[in-house]
Amino acid sequence: MLKAGGHLSTFGQEETRFPTVEPSTLDILRFTLAGVVLLPLTVFLSVCARLSAASRMRRLAALRLLGLSRKGTQRVNAAETVAAALLGAVLGLGAYWVVNQLVSRVGLPGFKWYPNDGALSGSTVLVCLVGCPALAWFVGRAGAKKAAANPLAVRRSAVEKPPRLWGLLPLVPGMGIVIGYCVAGATGHAPSETSLSSILMPLAVVLVGAGLVLTLPILSRALARRVARVTSSLSLGLAMRRNEMEPGGALRVATGLVLLVYAASLTQGVLIELDQVSKNTSPVQLYTMTLDGVDPKTEQAINEVSGVRGHAVLADSWIDLDSEKWPNSISAVIATCDQLRSMASVVENCVEGRSARLMIPDYSNNEFSKVGRRFPFQLQNAEGKRRFVTVQVPSRTIRYHDDTATQLAGSGSVLIPPSALPKGFRPQTRATLALISSSDPDTVRSVLEGIAGVDPTIEVELDGVDAAALQQITVIKTLLAVGMVLGLIIGVAAYLVAATDRAVERRPQVTALTLLGARPRTLQAVQVAQVVLPLTVGLVLAVVIGKMAESSYLVTGGGAVFWDGDGLPLLLGAAVGVVVVAALGSLPLVGRRIDPELIRRD
Question: How far apart are the C-alpha atoms of 407 and 344, rounded to whole Å?
């Protein structure tokens, strides 16, 4: 049980008295998960809405040419989309119920819940079952608008219109805000007004993300046109001309993975900011707990908890409030020299088995700790017997200094060897057990779990760290990891669906090129270049803009860290891995079997 840092709730209540995650932190988590999961999901849904777009548009155009009205054509496409959306919503809700039942019983690292806590409410189920088909209806009607308005252009495969420069509009103001905060942080003028930043920073993240999506086709088309003009390679020339004529294909194939890399940078910034809140600035972590009611076996088990590198007993001398004989007290550290060295960075002139005064440089001594003065210490054994031991302040001194924030023992405290106490007796008056470990958050959590495993009723007081915030960081990291995994799955699924659908739509063109004498290797090189080039451009933009957005987020967070390079190698490695996987995944999309019927039907 954490003293002044942990909370217990009453059993039987539907709501806990203290939230697992603070509302302000929960808002940050929601915003981050929206970027990590919802942005790739939006791309995935848009990709699914365009599945077999070319063939479906031709079919709808044929219905329109056969006499079906414009609204009727849109309704046919909308009805098909609604049926698929309703089936997907039912399957998704069922899959979520199964996953919640399984995962809640196993739990996630640092985060466990009951199945009922993760159960969907009736309103959520209703929104999914009604909202998804309703959204599909409007998307289906909008998707059939082109075929209904101009069926001849669809049947004759009219050339796609080039992307307009208005796609740069969201990126310009978003980058303006991001660059402004980065410059403010670099020049030492970090904003102190958080209310304005709380509005501008989320707005900048959304604008930059949307601008990144809308800018990708424009940059892909411009780059494809330039490369096609200067290249002498047949495969690269074909690939670039195709990207120039159809820049929207790059948007469908590459956007999901690009947004995932962009969101990963923002997630890194959120973790850095939250880590600064709960991190102990000292290199070591001090744990103290009262020895009242703790038997010697429990004390020994706590001292042997994994992660603990040093332990000692702290006690104050006894004070007689009814007499003037012992009106003052001194502090004592009961430990061997080896124990003292394991807890402090500086221990000089310590002799095993002999008492001494601890002298801390630049710290004032206890005014009552005078050489030769005597102070009584009240002791007690496991059977409850009490006795007094008088300790004389020795003349020997030990130069002492530890790495805790407030110093474990005050200057002038007396070091008492455990052998100087009667066997089986321990101090009773204000006696505490002090443990030292590394301040690494994982080590701190491990030590706290080890102490709870020995005796969960012991009150542990932490020095220099917010235990509740430490637990929140664990929960948030777990949820963000789950969000990143979901985002990765959705991004990869969007890529596979878009790339496969694009290859299916291009089968007539591939067949025509094959009949004209193009070799399979040439066509595979064309397919790889078509995917890799826009994806590489998008990933480079995502890494650069993502790191800038991360830095601007850290500048507005009020922490000490503005620029972080620790996550950059992992981010670059992930980007390179995405390009390699995309290239390998494009190779099988060019079939070996030639079907001239595709050309005749087209």
Answer: 9
The residues, any chain, with a CB within 8 Å of residue 338's CB and separated by 6 or more, are 352
- Measuring CA to CA, how many Å separate 190 from each of 274, 560, 561? 18, 10, 11
pLDDT at 11: 44
Q: What is the DSSP string of 154-181?
A: HHTTPPPPPPPGGGGTTHHHHHHHHHHH
CA distance 521 to 425: 84
Q: What would the two tokens of residue 193 be?
A: 């007004």
Strands 397-401 and 346-348: antiparallel
Provide the residue type at 105 as one letter: R
Burial grade of 509 (CB within 10 A; 0-12, 13-18, 19 or more): middle
Q: Which amino acid is at 184?
A: A
- d(C-alpha 472, C-alpha 32), whole Å: 15
| DSSP character string of 18-67 | S-SS-HHHHHHHHHHHIIIIIHHHHHHHHHHHTTTHHHHHHHHHHHHHTT
Residue 602 pLDDT: 47
Strands of the sheet containing 432-438, edge to edge, are 346-348, 397-401, 356-359, 414-416, 331-334, 308-316, 432-438, 284-290, 461-463
The residue to which tokens 């942080």 are assigned: 185
| Contacts of 334 by beta carbon, 8 Å cutoff, 6+ apart | 312, 313, 314, 315, 416, 417, 418, 421, 427
pLDDT along the chain (602 residues), means of 10: 46 52 68 74 70 64 74 77 84 88 78 78 85 79 67 57 71 84 79 72 81 79 79 72 67 71 77 65 81 82 88 83 68 88 86 87 78 83 81 86 80 85 80 85 82 83 68 76 80 74 67 67 74 80 83 72 70 80 68 53 48
From residue 390, how far is each of 322, 337, 424 by CA, in Å? 18, 21, 17
pTM for the model stands at 0.66
Pair 234, 256: CB distance under 8 Å:
no
